[in-house]
Amino acid sequence: MPRPEPKTITFTIDGREVQAPENTILVDAAKLGDVEIPVFCYEPKLGAPVGACRMCLVEIEGIPKLQTGCSTPVKDGMVVHTQTDRVREAQAAVVEFLLINHPLDCPVCDKGGECPLQDISFGWGGGRSRFIEPKRHFQKPLELSPLIAIDRERCILCYRCVRFSQEVSEDYQLILHERGAQTFVGTFDGHPYVAPFSGNIIELCPVGALTSRPYRFRARPWDIEGSGSVCGLCPSQCNVTFTVRDDRVLRVLARQNDGVDDGWLCDRGRFAYQAIHVDERITEPLLRDGGTLRPVSWERALDEAASLLKKAGSRVGALAGGGTTNEEGFLLQRLVREVAGSEHLDAAGIDPVDAWTLLDPALQASMQDVEYAHTVLVVGTEPVDDMPILDLRIRKGVRRNRVKLAVATPRPSSLDANAALSLRYAPGGEGAFVAALTAAVYGGDIEAPAAAADASVDEIRALAELLRTGGDGAPGDVVIVWGTSMLAADGGAVAPALLKLASGLNLSGREGGGLLAVPAAANERGLLEAGFAPGMAPGFGETDGEGEAHAVAGIAAALRAGDLTALYLLHDDPLVTRADTHGWDHALEKTTAVIAHSQFLTAGLLEHANVVFPAESYAEKEGTITHPDGRVQRLRPAIGRQGSVRAEWWVLTELAKRLGTDFGVLTGAMASQQLFAAVPFYNGLTLDTIGGKGVRWPADAALAAAYPAAPEARRDAVYAEAAEPNGALRLGTFRSIWVGADVEASPALKFLAPRQMVEMAPSDAQRLGVRHGEKVLVGGDGASVEAIVALRDAALPGSVFLQTGITTNAANVLDGPLVEIRKA
Amino acid sequence: MSWTPGDDAIHVVRPPAPGAAGGTYRVFAETLRGLKTTFARVAEGVHTIQYPEQKVPVYPRFRGRHRLHKFEDTGLEKCVGCSLCAAACPADCIRVVAAENTPEHRVSAGERYAAVYEINLSRCIFCGYCEVACPFDAITMGNDYEMSDYQRSDLIFTKEMLLAEPVERTPLRAEGE
Predict the structure, then answer these.
(1) Res A255 pLDDT > 80
(2) Residue A154, helix vs strand vs coil
(3) Domain B66-163: which CATH number of 3.90.1150.30, 3.30.70.3270, 3.10.450.50, 3.40.50.300
(4) What residues does each domain of chain A span?
(5) pLDDT class for A380, splitting at 50, 70, 90?
(6) Residue spans per domain, chain B
(7) pLDDT tens digits, residue range A309-354?
(8) Complex ipTM, two decimals?
(9) In 3D, which of A339, A342, A341, A343 has the Cα closest to residue A660?
(10) Does B135 contact chain A (CB < 8 Å)?
(11) Antiparallel, parallel or unpaired: β A729-734 and A799-803
């Protein structure tokens, strides 16, 4: 749906003439005239108002009864009074009424001091209660989930949490039990409320009924300081406020930025801060000495790392993980390219030329476009796992703006229920599927690629029809949300086909439509733009390097062959994050020098690292990261670095100095400045202009014009055919939202750390004679993992799905396109 | 050098110049009158208080070192760790870190208790706002005023020290004294 055109009207409130956009809700419009109307249940983020709490009663001339300000849109010439005796009396009565069952245990309550009920009782209440009967009692405090405590006595029944569960995250778990005065919030049968976004209800609750268990009794509002930054745990890059007390992060709150997160946070972003302050974290440099890693001084570690790098000469490879900032990526590529003279560095594992063509600002859709487009196509990604906040944004578009959603994924998607059309294709058939879809939009042979992707031709035709006509003959803005893991799977074919599809749908240069990439790692886009990609200088420029530049798989092969002897790992551990664990294990075994920056001693580092530098957590970092829609955002340090951790830019600069090159970086801001100067489309950005909300460079005409013209898309791309099962099963992989060292290290989130499940279609299970919940061995050639069978009705027969990245039994060890299932 | 205004400006009243009798009276009689007080006190006896062996009793509303209290019947701490005293404190000398009571380990009557309760007496200005802020009468200003120490760090009083009876009690002035 197109964004509504705002029309300005004039209305009068408390004798003041105020201009406001037409149909703004009165409570919001009143703020434009500096009038505050108290509210409890009204929350614009939750969608349509319900008028449940009656706190916002106002008098409107011409209407005999008092009206709720939260559900009345302003009209031209409306005359509103908020300070008359009638209104005051009503407000005081509502406060008295709301406090009838409220225990007033503010000294014990965690909300005390930041509680809207306190504020409104103080500001608008009568200050006296006539209620002498006993209040209603519940057992308390109860665990609504291991993350949330519920105190039903404090609840004022504003329905915010229930509305969130029913209408925003759509997990439909929270409900209201009983009726009238007996009403209380809960889940069916008292099951724990465990959902990817459950923590948001803590922030929504206007009283202390829902409180965070990890934050329980940790601090009071006057003990703490808020520190705005950006969450660096996944590509959503939600804006957050860290709550800091005594130099420790105690809580993470959402910081609303409509261009990024819409004011929501996932539970990982909300609770994984705990990993900052755990004992497992590395807080001093470690050096391998006699087989084990021992703590050493910074001088010694730096000297050792420098001499290892010197010995390796140009035979150095480098990998960067998702938590790397643009500046760190930029400095490490300088270290590898300028100092060592090597070209073998990679982060995303995708062809940078493909990325270059697909990240073109003319094709770029923004996060808000997803909400207002006519049609959204989700292809090759599961938003709730890969970029959780995008999932909420898509649901919001479908629910409130009637966006038509189409989902095309190998694995059954959580968005299927909201989709106008959802279809499956075989894992490994990404290129073939996009080629078939392109053919269906453009005209051409659909049958062959559809067969190669094991997808239904009719469904692909229907999808093409939906994209072309918007379903009702009114073609409009189309946003294609695509996973960059498709490029890694079948890069050669996916990128040109996607580009052709985009031009077939007229997405280039179109406002309100375009492509939106869902990266596999948090700052994948920023690292590509900062030049941390094989054979691609900062800002997609030419590099001076000669010869072939190895990508991830190439680096592993070169290490195994002995062509590379040193590996620099910036927040990465190939044994955990990359495919082909056995190959990497072998490669790391052969590597003479492994230098790593990490917060935790993961499997690969524990076994193979020679020097481990302690890495900063995202709450300690300074620098910029780039959102998948091109928004450059700024990380600001919220707390001091723990232990003897030092900034990564400092470590990289010191190493370069020891190898004879001065980067000229004395502060974190100087690294940012160098980056902005080196990347043409970041030119002119400063940390000040980026500020708290970030700058979307593709939306800035001058910056977008500086984007170097991408080369012509390959026309000779040939898609790969998805493997024919022939009795075996195709292997598809996915990464759960709960995968990561931070989740494993956070005491509160440990219970969510996923176990290996093999998702399969019921027909396959029947054929193999396995049941839901049964333990099986899933194996390819040589390796196998133990998993529990999970049947998915919507799964494509002939394919199974396993998780990658988990601590035990990760699917990373399997490399074949086909696997077999045996009973364990 | 005295300045004499003109007669037309101000009417100046001057005392009579002291004569011999007046002068003598001034020198001796007034002095003796003062000495009367002195000798009267001498007759009363010694008034020096031999501090620290002897102590001045303080008034009931005297604001001395803080005390934390327990319920006499249950032995539970009155403090629930709400931190309102820390919020009220103008000298920012109170630090409270709360924790949750469990059925096995119950410290206070409410859900939460103060795991850490520290008052930095080297910063405290003894204004008594903490006592006013406390919703549970858990903290009161006591009578003790002897708090000097050799180490600044010893002036940070912990919860245990504040809950304990003072080692030496300061005498309290009796009613009407």
Answers:
(1) yes
(2) coil
(3) 3.30.70.3270
(4) 8-98, 286-348+523-691, 356-518, 729-823
(5) very high
(6) 15-47, 66-163
(7) 999 999 999 999 989 999 999 999 999 999 999 999 999 888 888 8
(8) 0.83
(9) A339
(10) yes
(11) parallel
Indicate which of A106, A108, A247 best probes the interface with B, i.e. most B CBs within 10 Å of its own CB: A108
Tokens of A577: 């994050």
From 3.40.50.740, 3.40.50.150, 3.30.930.10, 3.40.50.1000, which CATH number describes the A286-348+523-691 domain?
Answer: 3.40.50.740
The CA distance from B114 to the nearest CA of chain A, in Å, is 9
Question: The tokens of A148 are what?
Answer: 């949330």
The model's pTM is 0.91
Model pLDDT for residues A558-602, shown as the tens digit of each residue = 999 999 999 999 999 999 999 888 999 999 999 999 999 999 999
- The reply to whether residue A218 touches residue B98, judged by beta carbons under 8 angstroms, is yes
Phi, psi of A60 (to 5 degrees): -120, 130
DSSP assignment of A114-151, as one string? Answer: S-HHHHHHHHHS-S-----SPPP----SEEEETTEEE-
CA torsion B22→B24→B28→B30, rounded to 10°?
Answer: 10
Asked if A537 contacts A531 with a C-beta cutoff of 8 angstroms, the reply is yes
Of the residues A220, A225, A246, A248, the best mutation for testing chain B's interface (the one with the most B CB atoms within 10 Å of its CB) is: A220
Q: Are A773 and A789 in contact (CB under 8 A)?
A: yes
The H-or-E segment that residue A416 falls in is none
Q: Is B112 in CB contact (< 8 Å) with chain A?
A: yes
Task: Calculate how close chain A gets to B110, using CA atoms only, in Å.
Answer: 7
| Interface size, chain A vs chain B, as Cβ–Cβ contacts under 8 Å | 38
Q: Does this chain's domain A8-98 share its CATH topology with A286-348+523-691? A: no
Which segments of B are annotated as binding site? 79, 82, 85, 89, 124, 127, 130, 134
Contact flag B86-A223 (C-beta cutoff 8 Å): yes
Residues of A in contact with B100 (CB under 8 A): 216-217
CATH topology of domain A8-98: Ubiquitin-like (UB roll) (3.10.20)
* CA of A221 vs chain B CAs: smallest distance (Å): 9
Chain B residues close to A113, C-beta within 8 Å: 87
- CA dist A416 and A423 (Å) reads 9
Distance CA A177, CA A289 (A): 62
Neighbours of B125 (CB within 10 A): 11
Please give the class, per CATH, of domain A729-823: mainly beta
Report whether CATH 3.30.70.60 matches the domain A356-518.
no
How far is CA A119 from its chain centroid?
34
Q: What is the C-alpha to C-alpha distance for residues A484 and A525, in angstroms, rounded to an integer?
A: 10
Which chain A residues contact residue B84 at CB under 8 A?
107
- CB of A531 within 8 A of CB of A333? yes
Distance (Å) from the C-alpha of residue A809 to the closest C-alpha of chain B?
A: 37
